[in-house]
Amino acid sequence: MHAKDFFGEKVKKIRLDWMLTRFMNPKASRSIQVTVSVSFTIVALVCMLAMGASLYQRFAMRSDKMLTEGARQTLDGIVINLEDYLRSMRRMSDAIYYNVVKDQDISKETPVAQMNLLYEAHKDYLISLALYNSEGELICASPVGVEKSDVDVTTQSWFSNAIKKPENLHFSQPHVQNIFVDDPAYRYYWVTSLSRAVELNNGGAPQMGVLLIDMNYAVIEDMMKAMNGNTSEQYVYLCDRNGSIIYHPMLMQISAGLITENNTQAATYDDGSHRELFNGEDRIVTVATMSYTGWKLVSVIPAGNTYRGLKDIRYFVVMIISITLLAMLILNRFVAERVTSPIIRLNDSIKDIEMGKANPEVYIGGPAEIEHLGKTLRSSYDQIGRLMKDMVASQEEKRKSELDALQSQINPHFLYNTLDSIVWMIEGGKNDEAVYMITQLASLFRVALSGGKTIITIEDEMRHAGNYMNIQKVRFKDAFTVDFEIDERIKKLCTVKLIVQPILENAVYYGVKGMEDGEISVKGVLADDGDVYITVTDNGYGMNEEQLEFLLTDNTRARKKGSGVGLINVQRRIKLRFGEQYGLKIESEPDEGTNVTIHLPAIEYNEENFKRLEGGKEQDA
Amino acid sequence: MHNRNMFILVVSMLLFISFSASASALIMSGIHDEPVRVSVVLDDSGSERWSAFLAGLEQAGKDTGIRVSVVTTGKNTSISQQYAIVREEIASGAEGIILQVTNSEGTEEMISDISSKAVLELVDTSASMDVDVEGKSACIEADNREVGRALANEVRIALGRDLTGVRIGIVDSNRRKNSNIERMEGFMENIESSGAVIAWKEYSKANIADNISQKQQGRYADVIVALDNTGLEAAGEYASSVDNAPFIFGEGISIINVSYLDHGLIRSMIVPNEYYMGYQSLATVKKRMENRLTPMENEYVTFRVVNKDNLFDEVNQRMLFPVLQ
């Protein structure tokens, strides 16, 4: 895999992890900017949705109201026109009956002339006028037509209805006229029949008859078509009181089974608007009933029509929503940035402090609250700095005091014994030896004091050790030998003072004291690893493991004899000054001797290192 | 932080695209596209027999928003003339073709060519075509074999089950159309067991009534069966000109045939639902135009058996008299 691919994969994985963390753990901490931004967006969205829902509700209600009102007005208009037409047809029927038929003795003359006149006057609305007797025989007709030979009008509904209910005028369903022959043109007419029972005067004898006015259905259709001419999905249809369709703009589709209509149900509705669910479609149905005929005009408005027809409004709504959301997003981001910027800058200052940046600049600015926080942070930081310095100084002081205390633990018993030995020498006339002892003692104290310094050269430390061993050799009458072998390269390196002398003291008192051929050797080398190793070896009685174990841990044991500066003190001083990796290593076998190794870093003794080590910096570094 | 900025950027981009698209749509909606045009090529387009079909077609045009253009043609247009007309229509921008072929034979190349250039819907009769796996064309027609069977049934209902000795004359004004071939097959299947004999068959396209008259003078048929509207009109014409007319049965829809039926010259008539055929043919073309991956499928329209008794039934009225006079 290429490095780039690998890196890409890693980035993807990190992003995925980040997203998973976000989704799986909604309580994961978020930045204040995100919180503010999301909060603003949610509030704005909720407001928008609430406002949108409210507006939508009002819009929908108003739309419904407008549509309903519009439908009602449309229906009222058609009702007036249709009723006018039907009324005029009824009036014509009345006119023929009361002014023509009633006065005419049909046995002498048929009223065909008057009927022709009326037909001519209304032929735009009429197909034919006809008068039948109760047996269904044609008395007269206008325009003059040839009756079909095998037609029996008594079987036709308009005739039977008129005979059945002679007191009423009957309007039939639209149908193709099936009475007269129109051979040359092969024409068939759609008509709506208006029939009534009439009383005929047949030579003075009253006789029942039927007056038929076949109205041109095209008139009704034209009126209805005019109302259904728009391109919307709204339409108006006409049915009778039983729901049988008289006119429907999609009647042919209904007949062909392409669509269905809820006409039977609509016929049961009262006048006014109704909401219905038909074939899974929500519709507003407005019904108006016509007088006399009981025909019902039904306006159907699919509820979705309001919005489906208004394609432009849909685009407009999407445009407005998009631009509003975009503006909201940008505005929220801007506001969130403005509000959170001071907090973020303050947070950056805290991060600098956390990262340990030297003299970090604490941001103070922004709103009063953030400014106050900044000031408080600056003040706290300064105070913490001061406290830290004080604490470091205090610790250093404490360590120095401890060192001083350790260094001052030189057993006065050693001084007393040495001075006592000198007195005995002087009293015994051994002035030269006394002078030697005093000289060695003076040299020993000069190095021990070292002008209050803690860090001295290894050369001085060896001198001090030499002085000490010279004094002890005199005191123990050269009962053992001492051999110093110090590498010249380490003589000018740094060491903590008074670390070799306590080891030599232990070598004398626990090692070679009482032996006749005691040997103590001190070797100092610069090892291959760059560190200094000073080894004090004796061939004394050695120690068992139990003694070894407590040598560097039990502070009380070292003080029983010797200078009082126990090995444990030496160990602690070295570690305090140079670090935990340095110190003592003791190896011993009973009757074989003891080997103590001092491990020190190789640090050249100069002004800079001296100051640094005196200040206790080596350990910090 | 990087992820958050990326998210906001992506959302902003999407919103901007949505805004731009809706704004463009709003502007573009003011510009009305040229409506899709579908050309209709029928034999003798001016014939009144197409009234119901054209009424259905017109209604479908209104409902679908397709501009329907009915090409004016004369009687007995040849298939090559129809092909030339269709090519002209396609060249002038017709995206769909509704075609009644006058000859169902040897149309493979023509149909393949037309259906590769426009959506093709055959009406009234099927035609020979290559295997059309993609369904680039389809046919809407009556189940013509069933129409033939129904005609035979009507003959047997009128004259009894046993037609031994009854002579039948058959009028087929276009025996090159699959519809007529299938009707003939259906009729013959159903009539042969009755014992009736075929007195003659008339296949002419012009002067059919005269030819029937001549055939009748030669070998008189007691029953004349016309397999299509033209043949039925000719049979009716013949019947109206003689005193003792034979029983006439046939398939038809024109007002002349209705009139013959009304006058009792035609005994029974099979009437396919041509309004539905016209409406559905355009609806199928529209459907194919909206989704080119959906194959077109053949469809049968229903038919009704009409006689003098049920001529003015509510349903038959709607089918036979779709246009107000």
Describe the structure.
The complex is a heterodimer of chains A (621) and B (325). In chain A, strands 1, 2, 4, 5, 7 and 8 form a six-stranded antiparallel beta sheet that branches. Chain A is rod-shaped, with a radius of gyration of 64 Å. Chain A has helices at 3-24, 32-101, 112-122, 157-164, 217-227, 251-255, 263-266, 305-308, 311-354, 368-407, 412-427, 431-449, 458-475, 500-512, 545-551, 567-578, 607-614, 617-620; strands at residues 126-133, 138-142, 146-147, 169-171, 175-176, 180-181, 190-202, 205-216, 235-239, 245-247, 272-278, 281-289, 296-302, 455-457, 480-486, 494-496, 518-526, 532-538, 583-589, 593-600. In chain A, α9 (311-354) runs parallel beside α10. Among the domains of chain A are: 102-219, PAS domain (Beta-Lactamase, 2-Layer Sandwich); 409-614, Heat Shock Protein 90. Helix content of chain A is 51%, strand content 20%. The longest helix of chain A has 70 residues, at 32-101. Chain A is α+β, with helices and mostly antiparallel strands and 621 residues long. Chain A starts with a helix and ends with a helix. Chain B is an alpha/beta fold and 325 residues long. Helix content of chain B is 46%, strand content 18%. In chain B, strands 2-1-3-4-5-11 form a six-stranded parallel beta sheet, sandwiched between helices. A six-stranded mixed beta sheet of chain B has the order 7-6-8-9-10-12, with helices on both faces. In chain B, α4 (108-117) links the parallel β3 (96-99) and β4 (119-123). Chain B starts with a helix and ends in a 5-residue tail after the last helix. The mean pLDDT of chain B is 90. Chain A binds chain B through residues 15, 18-19, 31, 34, 148, 150, 173, 175-176, 178, 181, 183, 186-190, 217-218, 221, 250-253, 255-258, 311-312, 315-316, 318-319, 322-323, 325-326, 329-330, 333, and chain B through 1, 3-4, 8, 11-12, 15-16, 18-19, 21-23, 25-26, 29, 55-56, 59, 255-256, 258-259, 262-264, 273, 275-276, 279-280, 311-312, 314-315, 317-319, 321-322, 324-325.
